[in-house]
Specification:
The complex is a heterotrimer of chains A (530), B (400) and C (376). Chain B is an alpha/beta fold and 400 residues long. Chain B has helices at 5-18, 83-89, 110-115, 121-126, 144-148, 158-172, 181-189, 243-252, 316-344, 351-358, 360-374; strands at 31-42, 45-53, 73-80, 97-99, 105-109, 135-139, 196-204, 222-233, 236-241, 259-265, 268-288, 291-307, 379-390. The chains are: A alpha+beta (530), B alpha/beta (400), C mainly alpha (376). Chains in contact: A-B, A-C, B-C. Chain B: Residues 229-392 form the Spore germination GerAC-like C-terminal domain.
């Protein structure tokens, strides 16, 4: 049954756009009424399609119509345009090309474009331009009066930093691109426009630095973006899932960020950014594993602090990965590895717990995940109530009732806090999944199971690639010069090379010699003595 | 081909999971944490005594159902022809699996020690649960069971009390030695080394030692106390060595970390106490005319701890004179110890191994007759260097 | 062969992990008593000679694995037979190492678990790695190289802090002269682990920069020889020669001696990590060589197809080769050494090299086949 269904599905080919295009072939007619009818027909007389009929020209009074989608245009600009067109505009009736004249006149205020094909008309109309039909003309003028309301630029909500710029991306594509361009004022910043989504016609911008980004990678990203063929792309997550190298993995192979400074830094390392209309999350490819443990602040703070924090984050990732499974393994298989006094203390607590350690751990972890999920989606005020209930139920009542041991509560809390401390949510989520797998392995084979699980994970990580770049670069394959910016962050002046393997190999050095501040100071000191 | 591989792997893993017997899995609740094992011999059979921790009753565990009403440990005894048999038979009384990974103390009854202990360590060594770092002591003048059935006031678990006492007294006073299981086993395989072990005995009234009332009084009626060192030869207890001689043994073994040496000063007996802070011993061997000579060089550093006579410690000459006396005292201790061991014909100092290392070829000849011929007549030359570094907070004493 | 290339650094690290492999945990060369470290160092020096033979063979045919160039050297039929023998040898040793590994794990931590389950879990992981190819294995080796080294250094430091080391136990040096040492070298340490580098003749052709094979290979041999000598020396210094020779895995007993500040003790997990990581890489390399060799011999383009059947075979073989641990060890020390290690690690490679040299000498200096493509 299922097989047959699958076969049937296979027979049907995706052709939405072809069907849609067929209905609107042809060109604009001379008759204004016919044109207006056509627009009405195709859009099904939708309520938000506004058709304003007016007489064009101060004296000529050519009957015309302006079409636009309400809410997607700047109403003020439309108003002004109408006044201008109907009251101020005048044109010689005998001129060679009236349309050209009109277009150029209007162009003083807005970008304009002449369109002839209906499908073009509709795609422009839907993207928020307004279309000016004039009676007796076989072409229409499309006027860019895009506008409408967008969220203002605010502080990013997912990647906060103590030191660093406060602005985050918004849902507006143009604003987002501009925010990055403002940071890198160089003509080599290239922005390519691609439209994705056969129905949604979502605007996507691909941004990279010419000469720094590896051409092969840019080409790879471009071709993967162009290959997308589906109804709609509503968020950058769609694109991420459609262009990533490996689907069957819990690890993210594309980085996403809300911070323009992060995008700028990545562009300077030769990566490609993908902006999607309607979302503040910008994709960055190729991404490597270690990138998910780095925060922009690492580069703004001094190197010693940044290094310490990076070690902490790696440690935290490991804790969030293995803490519960270590507890299971140690209490059910390897009691000999716990110091005697500690084992007695744990045994005393587990004396009254009715479940095996594994079941206890699973119950607690699942409870925590439920609490977390409940807290995420709830309005903030209710969310607090959830955390109070959670703290009381798990933290106290369960222990007092003898359901779980307090050691288990400590383990779960440590795990939870550790997973919150991981800078990238994407990697924290993958740790969450793997944690449960490791717990099962620990319950089956103890430390052996955990180790086998970690070996599997490592091999899997080593086999991943992101746009052709091995995921574990620069650890495996090992690139010693780039190790300066992995677990540790060397002082900025020592980070001489852009990441090998990602950046164009001919242009790898990113700063001049002797950037070390002491060099300059010594010469100055000598100057003082003179 | 490509699609098939994932289901296959998952299937394999699934089968593994189904077979889940949870082999080797032991919940903490199902374990009897044996903290000390006592071994005696009774009617030709081994009698094992297990001191099992009752986690709920150990102080510090304030979990529900705990409370400190019960006793922190329980004692079980079981007999068998072999130790493994005795251990397995214990399951008739204990509801949990005997678990030896936290066994930090092995007590051997004096009777068994005299009969010979070589047999009992094979089971211990073979079992991966047992730790080679476990301490081993002899029950002086009593059975291991009697020693293990004493409740102690401060360290609630009696075995811990014994281990800590042993470690502390070795470090502070140096008449007892903290012998590990592995050292005992190693000594069986070396021709030129015999083992010594510390002993414990129950001081006071033994009758109600295992009663909670024993720890309710300020001065428990039955107390555990470290006693003399047991000298072994070929796995058999052949004698005891105590007091200063015992310390002499530790001097030679380079196990003295700190101690206090009291010496005479002029006419006054036992007048000045010297606190040793650091000590180092080097043992070397030389062959002269085919006869081995052992050189023991001891170097100590320390402070003045106490004096009953008026000595002017600001005078370096006095200090040097005092150092001389110290050296004599320590030397005497060491020589006494060597003498006792030579009389017992048991090379507890490992002099034979020293000769072995220095003269491997000659050792092959000496090996067979070392204990009877060479060791008793061995020329042991002791050289002690003592340094008094500081005199504490005062220079002269108020005693005039 | 698969389409892949690895760097010299990766080869170096893979070889180090391979050499440490099980050699680190088993009582290697303990018949030499306290001079075991000398026996290992001698084994390393002679092993260097063997490696040079393998290297010379490789320089004649830098693009081909052993199973292919044996056909060029002694003709298609005999070469093929040799190739099959080598593939079987690699698979058999993979099964042996797997068995070693399972036995060790079983004895010290999982006495009630069936051997088959422990081995199956390990073999699944190995199969997964081999399925992913040599590049992934090489990359993973870089990550594990550092973790293993950290653990070794940590263990080393802890043992020294714990004061368990008594260098007197290493004395007297050369108590019985050189005789017993060379006996041990020629019966054990030369073949395991140093002669086992023969398996790398299957992996050399993947190297990106062929001229670096020499440096990477010899450095790996040198470093692992020194490390193994240090580890075994440390075992003797902590446990004494007698206990080391009686122990099923001396390194475990050494680690159990650690007792720092009454808290840092019972660090068996360190031993377990070393055992599992080392054992894993050893099985992976042997199994990979076997699979690739078989694919090469039977002209199978997708070598991945062989991973499951051969992997399952190795798994069952590892159970079937011996009925108990003693038998397994006895086989390893006597039968395998005489009938497998000596001919396959020494005699055949040397003969191959001699024939290759004669042939090349006849045809002129430029080695034929060197420029040729990998197998189609």
């Amino acid at each position: 049954m299922w097989l047959r269904l699958r076969n049937q599905n296979k027979k049907q080919v995706y052709q939405y756009d072809k069907v849609a295009q067929e209905g609107i072939y042809g060109t604009i007619e001379r008759d204004l009424h016919a044109n207006i009818e056509k627009v009405r027909n195709i859009t099904g007389n939708s309520a938000d399609i506004v058709i304003r009929r007016f007489l064009l020209g101060k004296e000529e009074n050519l009957s015309s119509a302006l079409c636009f989608v309400s809410g997607m245009v700047d109403e003020n600009m439309v108003q002004q345009l109408l006044i201008e067109a109907s009251v101020q505009l005048s044109f010689p009736s005998t001129c060679c090309d009236q349309l050209d004249y009109i277009e150029k006149k209007i162009a003083t205020a807005n970008t304009t474009r002449r369109v002839k094909q209906w499908n073009e008309v509709f795609s422009l109309l839907m993207s928020g331009e307004s279309i000016l039909f004039i009676h007796g003309m076989q072409e229409a003028i499309s006027i860019a009066v895009k506008g409408g309301e967008y969220r203002a630029i605010t502080e990013p909500s997912t990647q906060l930093s103590i030191r660093g710029p406060r602005e985050g991306f918004t849902e507006s594509l143009g604003t987002n691109v501009a925010m990055v361009r403002r940071r890198i004022q160089h003509p080599h910043v290239r922005v390519e426009a691609i439209t994705v989504g056969e129905v949604t016609h979502t605007n996507v911008r691909m941004m990279y630095m010419k000469e720094i980004a590896d051409d092969n990678i840019v080409e790879e990203v471009r071709s993967r973006l162009q290959r997308i063929c589906m109804d709609g792309v509503l968020e950058s997550g769609y694109i991420e899932q459609l262009i990533e190298d490996e689907t069957f993995t819990t690890f993210p192979t594309i980085y996403h960020t809300e911070r323009p400074d992060s995008v700028a830094a990545n562009l300077l390392e030769g990566r490609v950014a993908i902006f999607v209309e309607g979302t503040p999350f910008v994709l960055i490819a190729p991404a490597v594993f270690i990138q998910f443990f780095q925060a922009v602040e690492d580069y703004y703070a001094r190197f010693d602090i940044a290094t310490a924090l990076r070690f902490l984050r790696i440690l935290v990732f490991f804790i969030s990965l293995v803490a519960p499974s270590l507890y299971i393994a140690a209490t059910t298989f390897h009691q000999e590895m716990i110091p005697t006094s500690l084992v007695i203390a744990i045994a005393a607590q587990r004396e009254s717990v009715p479940f095996p350690a594994f079941v206890e751990a699973v119950i607690m972890e699942v409870t925590f995940e439920i609490l977390r999920e409940a807290g995420v989606r709830l309005p903030r005020t209710v969310g607090q109530a959830v955390s109070i209930v959670g703290a009381l139920v798990i933290g106290q009542a369960a222990v007092e009732a003898g359901f779980v041991s307090s050691v288990m509560v400590i383990v779960v809390s440590i795990t939870a806090i550790a997973s919150f401390a991981t800078p990238s949510f994407a990697i924290a989520v993958s740790a969450r999944l793997i944690r449960f797998l490791l717990m099962v392995l620990a319950a089956l084979f103890g430390f052996y199971g955990i180790l086998i699980g970690l070996i599997w994970m490592t091999i899997h990580l080593c086999s991943l690639r992101s746009f052709g770049v091995p995921y574990m670069t620069p650890l495996a394959p090992l690139i010693p010069t780039n190790l300066r910016d992995t677990f540790v962050r060397f002082p900025l002046w020592a980070l001489t090379d852009r990441p090998h393997g990602i950046t164009e190999e001919t242009n790898i050095v990113r700063q001049g010699d002797e950037q070390r501040p002491e060099h300059n100071q010594e010469t100055r000191r000598e100057g003082d003595e003179n | 081909m490509k699609i098939k591989r994932y289901p296959f792997l998952i299937f394999m893993l699934f089968i593994c999971t189904l077979l889940f017997g949870c082999w080797s899995k032991k919940e903490l609740r199902d374990l009897a944490l044996i903290i000390a094992v006592g071994i005696d011999k009774k009617d030709g059979k081994y009698m094992s005594t297990f001191q099992v921790v009752n986690p709920g009753n150990v102080a510090g565990a304030t979990q529900r159902g705990g409370g400190s009403t019960g006793l922190p440990v329980a004692l079980y005894t079981s007999t068998g022809d072999t130790l493994v048999e005795a251990s397995r038979k214990a399951s008739k009384q204990i509801s949990r699996i005997p678990y030896y990974s936290h066994t930090n103390l092995v007590v051997i009854g004096e009777e068994l020690a005299k009969e010979g202990i070589q047999q009992i360590f094979d089971a211990v060594e073979r079992n991966p649960q047992f730790r080679p770092t476990a301490n081993i002591v002899i029950a002086r003048k009593q059975t291991a069971k009697q020693l293990l059935s004493v409740l102690t006031p401060i360290d609630k678990i009696p075995a811990n009390q014994m281990i800590k006492t042993l470690e502390l007294t070795e470090m502070m006073w140096g008449e007892n030695v903290d012998t590990r299981l592995r050292e005992v086993i190693e000594s069986f395989s070396l021709a030129g080394k015999e083992v010594i072990m510390s002993s414990f005995y129950v001081d006071g009234n033994r009758k109600h030692s295992d009663d909670q009332n024993n720890v309710r009084t300020m001065e428990p009626t039955a107390r555990l106390r470290a006693a003399e060192l047991a000298i072994f030869k070929k796995g058999k207890l052949i004698g005891w060595i105590g007091k200063e001689e015992a310390r002499g043994v530790l001097w030679i073994l380079d196990k003295i970390k700190q101690t206090a040496v009291t010496v005479d000063w002029k006419e006054e007996k036992e007048a000045v106490s010297y606190k040793v802070v650091r000590a180092k011993t080097k043992v070397t061997a030389q062959l002269r005319n085919g006869k081995p000579i052992i050189f023991v060089a001891v170097k100590t550093e320390g402070d003045i701890g106490e004096t009953f006579v008026a000595i002017d410690f600001t005078d370096p000459k006095q200090i040097v004179a005092l150092e001389k006396v110290m050296q004599q005292e320590i030397k005497a201790e060491i020589e006494k110890a060597a003498h006792v061991a030579q009389k017992k014909k048991s090379d507890i100092f490992g002099f034979g191994e020293v000769v072995h290392r220095a003269y491997p070829k000659e050792w092959k000849e000496m090996k067979k007759t070392w204990d009877d011929k060479y060791f008793p007549k061995l020329d042991v030359q002791v050289k002690v260097e003592s340094f008094i570094r500081r005199t504490g907070l005062r220079t002269r004493s108020y005693i005039q | 062969m698969e389409r892949a290339c690895i760097s010299a650094r990766q080869l170096f690290m893979l070889a180090i992990l391979f050499e440490h492999g099980s050699a680190m945990v088993i009582p290697l060369g303990v018949d030499a008593k306290q001079d075991v470290w000398l026996a290992i160092l001698c084994g390393m020096v002679l092993g260097g000679g063997l490696l040079f033979v393998y290297y010379r063979l490789f320089t004649y045919y830098p693009r081909l694995p052993l199973t292919s160039y044996s056909q060029r050297i002694v003709g298609s039929f005999f070469g093929r037979v040799l190739g099959i023998i080598y593939v079987l040898y690699f698979l058999y040793i993979a099964a042996r190492v797997l068995r070693d590994f399972g036995e060790l794990l079983l004895t010290f931590a999982y006495p009630e678990t069936p051997l088959f389950i422990l081995n199956a879990v390990m073999m699944l992981t190995v199969m997964y790695a081999v399925y992913k190819g040599i590049e992934v294995i090489a990359r993973a080796s870089q990550l594990f190289f550092f973790s293993l080294y950290w653990i070794l250094i940590l263990g080393f430091v802890l043992i020294i802090i714990a004061g368990a080391v008594d260098l007197h136990r290493l004395q007297p040096i050369l108590e019985e002269g050189w005789g017993p040492i060379f006996h041990v070298v020629f019966t054990q340490t030369l073949y395991v682990p140093f002669g086992e580098m023969i398996v790398f003749t299957m992996i050399f052709p993947y190297l990106q920069k062929q001229e670096k094979v020499m440096k990477a290979g010899f450095l790996a041999l040198l470093l692992s020889g020194i490390n193994l000598a240090m580890i075994m020396g440390m075992n003797v210094a902590v446990l004494g020669a007698d206990m080391v020779s009686r122990s099923t895995f001396p390194l475990l007993n050494t680690i159990q001696e650690i007792r720092v500040a009454n808290f840092l003790e019972r660090l068996d997990v360190l031993f377990m990590i070393a055992l599992i990581v080392g054992g894993f890489f050893k099985v992976v390399v042997f199994f990979y060589a076997g699979v690739i060799g078989a694919a090469d011999l039977f002209q199978i383009k997708e070598y991945q197809r062989l991973v499951y059947p051969l992997g399952i075979s190795v798994l069952f073989l590892s159970i079937a080769i011996a009925s108990n641990f003693a038998e397994h060890i006895k086989e390893g020390l006597q039968i395998v050494t005489i009938y497998m290690h000596i001919p396959l690690q020494i005699v055949i490679p040397v003969l191959l090299l001699l024939i290759a040299m004669l042939r090349q000498g006849k045809r002129g200096r430029k080695p034929q086949g060197a420029r040729e493509q990998r197998t189609p």
